[in-house]
Design a protein that fits this description.
Shape: globular
Radius of gyration: 29 Å
Distance between the termini: 38 Å
Helix content: 25-40%
Largest sheet: 8 strands, mixed, barrel
Length: about 525
């Protein structure tokens, strides 16, 4: 009886509630298309869903530029929420079938100034959101709900392209200034020395952009679009100076070129087969239990060269799909197998213990000669910068000692300066970098590294043999570089199987990480 009454009230509210009589008015949940802009939420939605108000989107996209990656929300209804969806959520709430919802016509989602954020994004906004006018100003019981502070952001919208943001007059400030500085350096590199490299898009920079557009026969509007960025990044061709050769004088007033001595042609001996270096690009996928069963032979036929599978996480979780059978299937398909460990720096734990747990698990799965070097995946931490650096150092040094191989470090651009202290974590550049920077034409390399070994360039790749989207990676240097990443030998203590049977608890998959969230399409 109570649910029937609540449903009746909800139906009346939908019919006669706020905004019902003003269906075409500019009110909550009925914003026109001109008042909304796309945001870098990592979620593809049909408009108007997945968008924020123009001002809120400009601040959100600038915050994504500062983070160096998209800031995922929890789905298409997690940003702007039309009145119809507000009414649907309210009906579910009052009938006891949904979460807490605001009365239709009163939600900040209806103004395009609220976002329900993914787990790791909540932490990022909590630390840095105030600089971009995003903070928790309501719904304190909902940890995922954050709001834009209206009237706070004064900069233009850089758009959702994190590699080539749209810049114009008055661009700059948090998130945008680093790209404005890049623009100014490129303009000076093209010969315009009137530009000051100060990170502010003032009138001198706008005038230089117009001159560059005119010289390149582009639309002259002073706006730096991705097309303008592409022209700016093209190498500048310099004329090659040539000096005429001196020709000796011959009696009789004529000149003749000197005769070149002829040498007998000696054919080069053919290279032996085992000395030939493999050629061509090398790409592969990395998988976890979220990808389910994988047909590795189909992956190989699609052109992949390697598969890196998640082995362990923390000091108490083993991927239920990982084991000797999976590793043998990867090798039987003609793919190079690899393994990675998801590091969980927490108080009361040690990196050495996680490294020992990882080494024991992959040893039982047959880790050895021919594998790729082991990988440590570092995406989150509960420690300070110094504590995280120390924890990672314990892990990599223990892995090197036990397995005889330096592990490759996987992370994304903003994590290193934010949580590892960048160059202050001094041992980092002694290890190879696997950088996660999808959607960019060229990955950002955090200090102290100046290059990368592998690049994860998409989280939603379509590869035969894998259901749904999958992470796809390429090796810098192609197959020749991939051959150098393979393990030559391992210590006897790893080759020798342990006598006692190892009992490893199999837990449910932990909370979504950066890559899992992107695959699920929920931010």
């Amino acid at each position: 009886m109570r649910r029937t009454t609540a449903a009746l009230i909800a139906a009346l509210l939908i019919m006669f509630g706020p905004g019902a009589s003003n269906a075409g008015a500019y009110s909550n949940g009925q914003l026109p298309e001109s008042a909304l802009s796309p945001a870098s939420t990592g979620v593809r939605c049909d408009k108007p869903l997945g968008q924020f108000s123009n001002e809120a989107a400009a601040a959100y996209n600038s915050m994504a530029l500062a983070a160096g990656k998209k800031l995922p929300t929890n789905g298409c209804s997690s940003a702007y929420r039309p009145l119809s969806i507000q009414q649907e959520f309210w009906l579910l709430y009052i009938t006891g079938r949904g979460n807490l919802a605001a009365v239709p016509g009163t939600s900040n989602h209806g103004w395009g100034t609220a976002g329900d954020e993914a787990t790791w994004v909540q932490g990022y906004i909590h630390l840095h959101g105030r600089r971009f006018c995003w903070a928790k100003t309501e719904a304190f019981s909902e940890s995922w709900h954050y709001n834009y502070i209206p009237g706070c952001w004064r900069r233009p919208n850089p758009g959702v392209n994190l590699h080539s943001p749209t810049l114009r007059r008055h661009s700059g400030g948090p998130g945008q200034n680093i790209y404005v500085r890049k623009l100014q350096k490129l303009l000076r590199g093209h010969g315009d020395k009137t530009v000051d490299v100060n990170g502010s898009f003032e009138w001198k920079t706008a005038r230089a952009v117009r001159r560059f557009q005119k010289a390149q026969r582009l639309k002259v509007n002073g706006v730096v679009s991705p097309r303008v960025w592409k022209r700016l990044r093209q190498p500048i061709s310099k004329p090659v100076k040539t000096t005429p050769k001196k020709v000796p004088h011959v009696a009789g007033g004529t000149t003749a070129p000197p005769a070149k001595p002829t040498k007998p042609h000696k054919p080069k001996p053919p290279k032996k087969h085992h000395h030939r270096k493999p050629k061509g690009p090398a790409w592969g996928i990395d998988i976890s239990s979220n990808n389910g069963a994988v047909n590795f032979k189909a992956v190989r036929r699609d052109g992949a060269s390697f598969v890196i599978t998640k082995a362990t996480e923390g000091n108490d979780y083993v991927n239920p799909h990982f084991g000797r059978a999976q590793v043998q299937a990867i090798g039987a398909a003609g793919l190079v197998p690899g393994v990675y460990h998801y590091l969980r720096p927490k108080p009361g734990r040690s990196g050495s213990a996680e490294a020992a747990f990882f080494a024991q698990a992959i040893g039982r799965a047959g880790y050895g000669k021919g594998f790729m070097q082991p990988v440590v995946d570092l995406e989150e931490t509960e420690l300070s910068q110094a504590g995280t650096c120390r924890y990672l150092g314990q892990f990599v040094h223990t892995v090197k000692k036990v397995l005889g191989e330096k592990p490759i470090i996987y992370t994304f651009p903003s994590f290193v300066p934010d949580h590892l202290g960048g160059s202050s974590c001094r041992f980092l550049n002694h290890y190879l970098l696997w950088i996660a920077h999808p959607g960019a034409s060229k990955p950002l390399i955090p200090s102290p590294w100046n290059t990368y070994a592998m690049w994860q360039y998409t989280w939603t790749g379509k590869v035969a043999g894998v259901t749904g989207g999958v992470d796809v990676n390429k090796v810098r240097g192609g197959r020749a570089a991939l051959a150098k990443l393979r393990v030559r030998d391992v210590p006897r203590r790893v080759r020798k199987a342990p006598r006692a049977k190892l009992e490893l608890p199999l837990e449910a998959e932990p909370r979504p990480t950066l890559r899992k969230v992107a695959k699920a399409g929920r931010g």
